[in-house]
Design brief:
Blueprint: E1 28-36, E2 45-55, H1 60-64, E3 69-74, E4 82-86, E5 90-92, H2 96-102
Antiparallel strand pairs: 1-2, 1-5, 2-3, 3-4
Length: about 110
């Protein structure tokens, strides 16, 4: 799509930090890499890059810390620069089947 208005589901991420249990080694993620400004925008906008988690925080103290960094390789898992990224700066694609399973039943369904 030359207009970049139609995106595949796998390239769409909720703008919220994932749960710790939703991110592991090998997870495909977007990670906050900086900011940019655009004409007409108020304030700075977050710039995200694609990457692969190559290592997760180890140990109970590291896993419990909100700012414990995940090792994320930009681009493919076997190439690219590695960044240490806190969980709050990661974004993951949704799981369509899980999202459909979590939908509440319609309001006209009998109980």
């Amino acid at each position: 799509d030359a207009t970049a208005r139609t995106q595949p589901f796998s390239a769409v991420c909720l703008d919220a930090a994932p749960l710790r249990e939703d991110v592991g080694a090998g997870s495909l993620v977007l990670f906050r890499k900086g900011t940019y400004s655009a004409e007409g925008a108020t304030g700075e906008l977050a710039h995200y890059a694609r990457g692969v988690v190559v290592e997760v925080p180890k140990g109970e103290a590291a896993a419990a810390a909100e700012d414990a960094p995940y090792s994320v390789r930009e681009g493919a898992a076997d190439s690219g620069e590695t960044h240490l990224v806190p969980l709050g700066n990661l974004r993951v694609s949704g799981n369509l089947m899980a999202a459909l399973a979590d939908e509440p039943a319609s309001s006209d369904a009998s109980s």
